[in-house]
Amino acid sequence: MSPAPEPTAQRENLYFLRWLPVIGSVALMVMVAVIATRTMSELKSAIYWHQHTSREILAAQSYEDNLMNIQNSMRDFVTMGDATALALCQRCIKLEPQLFDELVNLTHDNPPQQQRLNNLSVAVKDVFAYDARLIDIYKLRGAEAVLRTEQTGEGRIIAGRARDILKTFSTEEQKLLDARDAAEQADYYNAERLLIIGSVLAAGLIVLANFMASREMARRRRVEIEREKLIAELQQTLAQIKTLSGLIPICAWCKSVRNDQGYWQTVEHYVHSHSDASFSHSICPSCREKFKDEIAKARSLGEKSPSQN
Question: Over pLDDT 90: what percentage of the chain?
Answer without folding.
Answer: 17
